[in-house]
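As promised in the previous annual report, we have extended the structural survey to additional targets. Below is the entry for HTH-type transcriptional regulator LutR.
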Amino acid sequence: MNHTAAATIPPSPVLAPTPAPRKKHRNLAQGVVESFTQTIQAGTLKPGEKLPTESVIMEMHGVSRTVVREAISHLQAAGLVQTRHGIGTFVLAPQPANLRISSDTIRTIGDVLSILELRISLETEAAWLAASRRSEEQVQQMGEALARIQSSAGLPGSVEADVHFHLLIAQSTGNRYFVDILSDLGNTIIPRARVNSAQLAHSDPAAYLERVNREHDDIYRAILRQDAEAARAAMRTHLSNSRERLRRAQEGIEADA
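The corresponding structure token record, generated without further manual editing, is:
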């Protein structure tokens, strides 16, 4: 009996597995960032605590040292951690969600005095930078604002012109954060917008406004000639005088009380 030979079926070829696409550094770093962000927000890592070393993070996440350093840079930019060179990286305390200054909280002469202290530290540096960086167009606008201050002395529009003058100086620094802070304060940066400084200090209104205008003029002329040190000194003189006038007024009110 003849047997028909069974057909031989060739074995199926073994397919090599397709290699998974290699993740980019950015994706890997983002994964590390998300992991630490969740850990910090959950309170597992608390403010002041130290992050694991780079080597430990590399082992935990299976990433390179470059990826770890990129991730830490992102965490620093987000305000979650701070690196102290030679010591390590530490978790920062959460910052308030809103650091803006509300003009609604500025109600008393004491509040205005506190704002003037802030402005002395802030605007003296702004004047220095403005004198160094201002453009011809910006200094021209300052001159126009100064003219409006002088022509509207004692009138409601003088406060707006005064605010505009100080904002122009802030804008001339080229640093938007100066503008942001002064814009938050609005008209409260001008003491006479809140209180009658001349009346409280028992000063002649005309003489009071003349002194204020002269102080503004000194600031403007220093910025005009690009004398940074003189601009800083003129701004400090102007704001310190404003603070002193209000301080004397407050003392008078307290004495009367």
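Residues 3-7, 12-23 have pLDDT under 50 and may be disordered. Residues 201 and 252 are 8 Å apart (CA to CA). These points will be discussed at the next consortium meeting with the crystallography subgroup.
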